[in-house]
């Protein structure tokens, strides 16, 4: 019953229905929304999602508050232990029955949108957020090895692994996001293709601290050591001890396959990773990097110059595609 309430509220938000929530049909399997039957057990995400509604964030917070109040109201007379068990079961039920289905060219992906608002957004905006990255992955040759550095909850790792000949090394230091990454690999039965590693990459092999701007799965804004203070005028929400390797040492020490393609999305730590990856980068076909919030001088000195020295030249077409946040550097033959 409680999970039905949550899901009905969520479905009403998706379809723009903001009327009297208490008039909803909280039946066990199907809710009627504007005359359209929508099954509770699956949140469908299409290849061409509708544009977000104005005020979506504000509305989602209001609806979440209403849902929370309903749960508290229905458990008010139970014991503390029973109440906690009920909360846990509602969360578990939503997580297992409400997986978002993403219909892709090579197959269907499942994501858990209930781990955080960031995870819900990643599912809803999967096809529209970085179409240039999806198009790049679509062009991977068979039997490729893809290193997803800064994999977060794993959306691009999962997408690449839809090609069953591709092997993926997914690196994510944030423990909260890493847990969701592993959950997504299990949900899609891709443990034979994706190897998740909870560690950081940088210019040296050492023990570091990862400073998190937000203590929530899927959130960005994490950075190593002193670089956090350089980027944000605030104290971190949490600091997590983490082992940091250079990419070259990681590949050599653990016998990882040499990457064919690399994606790097690490909130400003890209130059450090490149400094520790020169041997590995010498054999890759292309590298995709996010450069948001970087000046042209920083991009030129920290990214373009070292990659050019290794024979990787920017494909300028990517600048005008999709999000505009990424740069693609390809091997020149």
What attributes does this structure have?
alpha/beta, 38% helix, 333 residues, seven-stranded mixed sheet, Rossmann fold, 16 strands, 22% strand, globular
What does this structure look like?
The chain has 333 residues and is an alpha/beta fold. The chain has 2 domains: 2-98, no CATH class; 123-331, Rossmann fold (3-Layer(aba) Sandwich). It is built from 13 helices and 16 strands. A hairpin with a 2-residue loop joins strand 4 (100-104) and strand 5 (107-111). The longest helix has 19 residues, at 56-74. It is globular.
Describe how the helices and strands are arranged:
Elements: H1 2-14, E1 30-33, E2 36-39, E3 43-45, H2 56-74, H3 80-97, E4 100-104, E5 107-111, H4 117-124, H5 126-129, H6 131-138, E6 145-149, H7 155-161, E7 167-171, H8 175-187, E8 194-197, E9 200-201, E10 206-212, E11 223-224, H9 227-231, E12 238-245, H10 247-254, E13 261-264, H11 270-275, H12 278-281, E14 286-290, H13 296-309, E15 312-314, E16 326-331
Parallel strand pairs: 3-4, 6-7, 6-13, 7-8, 9-12, 13-14
Antiparallel strand pairs: 1-2, 4-5, 10-11, 10-12, 14-16, 15-16
Helix pairs in contact: 1-2, 1-3
* pLDDT < 50 runs, ≥5 residues: 1-54
Task: Give, in spatial order, the strands making up the sheet with the most strands.
Answer: 8-7-6-13-14-16-15
> So what's the overall shape?
globular
Q: Quick one: how many beta strands?
A: 16
Whole-number tally of structural domains: 2
Largest sheet: 7 strands, mixed
**Helix-strand topology string:** HEEEHHEEHHHEHEHEEEEHEHEHHEHEE
The name of the CATH superfamily of the largest domain reads: Vaccinia Virus protein VP39
CATH architecture of the largest domain: 3-Layer(aba) Sandwich
Q: Structural class of the secondary structure composition?
A: alpha/beta
**Average residue pLDDT:** 82
């Amino acid at each position: 019953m409680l999970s039905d309430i949550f899901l009905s509220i969520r479905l009403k938000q998706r379809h723009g229905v903001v009327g009297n929530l208490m008039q909803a049909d909280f039946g066990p399997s199907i809710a009627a929304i504007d005359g359209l039957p929508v099954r509770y057990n699956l949140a469908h995400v299409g290849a061409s999602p509708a544009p977000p509604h104005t005020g979506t964030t504000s509305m989602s917070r209001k609806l979440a508050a209403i849902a929370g109040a309903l749960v508290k109201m229905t458990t008010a007379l139970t014991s503390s232990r029973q109440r906690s068990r009920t909360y846990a079961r509602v969360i578990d039920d939503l997580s297992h029955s409400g997986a978002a289905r993403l219909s892709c060219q090579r197959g269907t992906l499942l994501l858990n949108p209930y781990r955080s608002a960031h995870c819900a957004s990643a599912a809803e905006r999967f096809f529209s957020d970085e179409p240039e990255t999806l198009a790049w992955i679509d062009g991977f040759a068979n039997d490729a090895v893809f290193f997803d550095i800064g994999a977060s909850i794993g959306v691009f790792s999962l997408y690449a692994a839809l090609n069953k000949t591709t092997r993926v090394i997914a690196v994510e230091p944030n423990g909260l996001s890493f847990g969701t990454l592993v959950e997504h690999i299990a949900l899609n039965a891709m443990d034979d293709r994706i190897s998740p590693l909870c560690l950081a990459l940088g210019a040296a092999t050492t023990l570091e601290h990862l400073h998190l701007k937000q203590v929530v799965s899927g959130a960005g804004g994490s950075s190593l050591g002193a670089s956090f203070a350089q980027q944000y005028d605030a104290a971190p929400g949490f600091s997590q001890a983490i082992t940091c390797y250079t990419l070259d040492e990681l590949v050599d020490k653990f016998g990882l396959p040499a990457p064919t393609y690399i994606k790097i999305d690490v909130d400003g730590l890209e130059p450090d990773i490149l400094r520790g990856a020169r041997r590995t980068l010498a054999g890759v076909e292309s590298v995709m990097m996010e450069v948001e919030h970087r000046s042209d001088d920083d991009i030129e000195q920290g990214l373009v110059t070292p990659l050019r020295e290794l024979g990787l030249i920017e494909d300028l077409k990517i600048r005008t595609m999709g999000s505009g946040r990424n740069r693609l550097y390809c091997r020149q033959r």
